[in-house]
Structures are given as structure tokens and as C-alpha cells.
Amino acid sequence: MVILGLFLLQFSYLLDRVDGEVARFRREASLTGKFLDGTGHIVTISLMCLGFATGHFLRSGDWEIFIFAALYSIFCIRIDLLVRADVVSLFLLEQPDKQYDYYTKIRLHQSAKIAENLNRETGKVKSRLLQSMKGFFAFPTSLNVLTLCWFSDFLFHTSLIYWVLIIYGTLTPLRRLGAIYAFARQSQTELVYCRLKGIEDEGTQ
Prior knowledge:
Layout: H1 2-25, H2 31-60, H3 65-75, H4 79-94, H5 99-125, H6 128-136, H7 141-156, H8 160-185, H9 188-197
Helix pairs in contact: 1-2, 2-3, 3-8, 4-9, 7-8
């Protein structure tokens, strides 16, 4: 059954890679398709972590693995992007208060230099190694890593699943909280709102 589950996981990834190409070939690509694709990723990652954690628990009895699997499942979701899109769409569609347009421009003007300095610092720090580490935590790389760890545990009686889920469950929340902090400090929500609504942004001229 475990081998079947791993096969189905890899097969689901294969389908995920080709569905967009099929839609474009048939000229049926749509935003609804992108929405369903993203929803499928969230569900797949959650079930994947639950499955690997359950398998390890049944073999070893390490119940704490469920905590780290849950943390990774929750924080691997781009909470920063989802909330930003929700806030921006709310203000674009319902326009609850016109004064926000005024305060948004002030906020962008005040944070323009901060964002510029942060981008300059980030550009100095970034490297190929950091980019590779970023991909290590993303789906489908995490699927492949956990699959290899399971085979290692099964064949050589290691505990790689346990330690990899601990790493994912510890570092992924920290990465996501860092992204949320950067979004707030650089006024990313205001920036997207202004671009979509066409507000004059004097702070970034």
C-alpha cells in the first residue's frame, strides 16, 4: 500500500505538470484553472505530510512528528500572497473608504527608501546556494525529498523522514514569517493596490 501511495503521489505530480499544457493546447486555459491548480497543491501537500508522518509514527511511535508535519503543511502555503490578494481585492471591489487611497500614497512615500535599502541589502546576500535552499522547501522538491527519505528508511532502517520533517516544520514557518515581515516593511500590499487601481505613486518615482 505504501508503494502504491508513493506511486500515486508521483503520478499526481506528473498530471500537475501536463494539465496546464493540455489546457493551453486546447485553448481552454483560464483563471479558474489556475485557482483549481493552486487549491490542488495545498491539498496535496497537506495529505502528503500527513501520510509520511503517519507512516513514520506507525513504525516508531514518534507522535511529535505530527506537529512538525502540521507546521510545514500550514506555513508552506503562501499566506502572505493570499492575504495580500484578499485585502487588495476587497478594496478594489467594495471601496470601503476613499481615505485609504490618500494614506496609501503616504505609506508608500515613507517606505520607498526603506524598500530600496532592503532590496540593495537582499541583492548582496542572495546567492545560488540560498536560491537552492529556497527550492528545497517548495513542492514538488519536498515530495521528491520525502520519497527518497522513505526509501532510505525502508531499505536501510534510517530515520530520515523524521529529521527532514523536523527541518521542514521548523524552518518553513520562520521563512514565511520573514516574508510577512518583508511584505509589511516594504508596503507590498499598498504597492499592488496602487498598481491595480492606477493611483499616482509619488514615493517610487
